[in-house]
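Suppose a classmate hands you a notebook page containing two proteins, each written out with its sequence and a corresponding row of structure tokens. How would you begin to make sense of it? This section walks through that situation. The first entry is reproduced here exactly as it would appear on such a page.
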Amino acid sequence: MTNVTKPKSMKTFFVIWLGQLLSMVGSGLTGFALGVWIFEQTGQVTPFAMTALFGILPRVILSPFAGALVDRWNRKTVMIISDSAAGIVTIIAAVLLMSGNLEVWMIYLISVLEAIFGTFQGPAYMSSVSLLVPKEQLGRANGMIGLGRSIETIITPIIAGALFVGIGLKGVIIIDIVTFVLAVLALLIVRIPQPKAALVSEASEKKQSIWGDIAFGWQYLTKRQGLLGLLLYFACVNFFLSVCGVMIGPLILSSGNPAQLGLVQTVMGLGMLGGSLVISAWGGPKHNRIPMLIGVISLASIGYILIGVSPDILYTLLGGLTLMLFIPVASGISQTMFQAKVVPNVQGRVFATRGMISSSMMPIAFLSSGPVADYVFKPLLVEGGALADTFVGRWVGVGPGRGLGLMFIASGVCLILVSLAAYAYPRIRHLEKENPDMIETGEDDQKIDEKDVRKEIPLKAET
């Protein structure tokens, strides 16, 4: 039987969150500085896309393995090793740079290694949240995680630019190393509750192979069609968000200037911060989460339509603000729902499978966005283009960047249609009724036998 001792406050979570925030900021500083270094060395844009690709592929491929191992191992230990290993990679990069031996292909390798360690750290961190905080505080905890990402998004470019000029790439990497050390120290001084079934599973666990554990994450979701349907919906959302997300810069620069691009990025960062603050303070809905979640994503979709509808920078600013204001709210609601609906001692496996499915479309989006923009949408709205003399041309405009604008509108419309389809699917719409919460608010310890999950016996939340 699983016996999880629940903490009475969020103090432990806050210590870990603060350490991870410092680590994220440090990593963001290094990422920004390495991006500038790559451009100075190559003068090309392609290496940026390659770095992003190498940073996402390991997460998609290795997530099931990471989740299975996270549920077998001590989650605190996994987080410490992952953060420490990422720090060591950063130290190696610093040594290569200082010795004059750092090359672009090494940056790709560094991205791969850091993505691998992050693939283990992510499920360990997120599956620990439901053990660290009371159920009624899950929404606020997930909001704080989103808030940390927002702070990193806003602060990193500002600080990194100044630091890169002042102390150079070497100094930035040293700061990153310090933040890794602080993150590990934060983990060392706290206690993270560990489900016993994840540590010492009786005979059933001893017989279960790593491949069985990997399959278990998928089987758990396939037996709960609402959760699986929700993940497939998220995969579609991530595709349409990602396929245009990398095109915001080219869209603005087609008819604007770098100063306007910087302004838009700042406003989007502020929108993300605002959304994170809202979900942190509010905690999200206690009931009827599905309508709220799908509704919030639909509202975020309107942001893409606003970005594409006109070259006027005001539309772009309003669209970017709308998009980034609602995305953190949707993310917080989603994370809280999965933490509540999935048994704690299997969350590593299930969350890893969740991450693999929801992000599986992102590499496809990154690889296809350029060709789709250049060879499909751009030619439609140039002078003499197929849509130039139609109502679309009169509405969206004709000329530089207008094809990209149409691409943003198409993505926004597709997001709304996908959201309507998701809500029309009964298993998603009734997910909350058909899948009871696995975490309770009472003082009694939660007792859930993992063999019930493996035998596919319907789990019931204890009262």
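The notebook's second entry, a different protein, reads as follows.
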Amino acid sequence: MAKGSRLKVFEAQIGFYDTVVAAPSQAAALRAWGVHQNLFAAGEARVATDEAAIAAATAHPEIPLRRALGSKDVFAVEATSLPKVPAAPKAKAAKPAAKPKPAKPAPPPADRSKLDAAETALKTLDEARKREEAELARAQAHLDARIAAAQAAYVQARKAATAKVVEARGAYRKAGGRD
């Protein structure tokens, strides 16, 4: 610990113990407890307010002190008492077993023929639609090719027509015509 750094006392419940540690920061407290998750962010650790806990922790800087969960014992390096565990509930006396009811015969298997026929009809419909979509896609590709060819022919014809207009306009102006 660096000389002159101020210690804060932090507390947390870890396992069956209440713990306190005097450390310069929350990160140092987590390291002292040997914890990798941020108990402060989770709300499971906080700054201690109990004066006895603060006094015990500052007497042993950066050493975690603990006591049994919920006890009022003094915090120590090794807890002197064990946590109080409530007694297990008493087992109820077992009731005599009732006579088993005779097993009902298994029902006959359900008739699946209508379901099979409906599934087959659905599969046939889906396959027909896939074939139809493929044929439409081929027809669309053919139309797209015709559109592209028509557009190219139009562009060529328009260039030729525009060239004739430019040539005729030039001849008209040369002959003295005005626009």
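A careful reader of the second entry would note: Helices lie at 26-33, 51-59, 113-174.
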